[in-house]
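Write out structure tokens for F-box associated beta-propeller type 1 domain-containing protein.
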Amino acid sequence: MERREKHEVSGFDQTYYVLVNGVTHWLGCESKGVTICFDIKDEHFYEMQLPDLDVNYLSHPGEARVSLGELGGLLSLFYMFQAKEVNIWVMGEYGVAGTWTKLFKVGQNEMSVLFEFLHPIGLSKSGEIIIRKDEGQLLLYDPKQNSGRGLKLPPM
């Protein structure tokens, strides 16, 4: 597994995290392209590389957005630049940086919503990607049909 041990951890977004393979992941905020990881079983921190993105998201805070998620048991990443499209990546073999694969590129027209903060939260049985928006709304994106739609939740 490709990782760098961290004895002092700083510079990560504590707001959003994802749990994959018994490890909690946060986006690194001080260096381009890393996730800060905490292994719950071994109780230690380390860094893992993210995929090579077109633009350094840290240099473009208002234009580039990145979020981590879990899709089908795999660590995933949503990357959006200038609110035009979202690229969805997954790490094929956990801990191996070279196995990041771009699954989809979704344009704003396909999602029928304004691109805001999007967070992948899972896959449906039919293979649609379940996405949470900043306000807590849920969306379904169908990669086969290249289309998205909102989900209506029953009142609580």
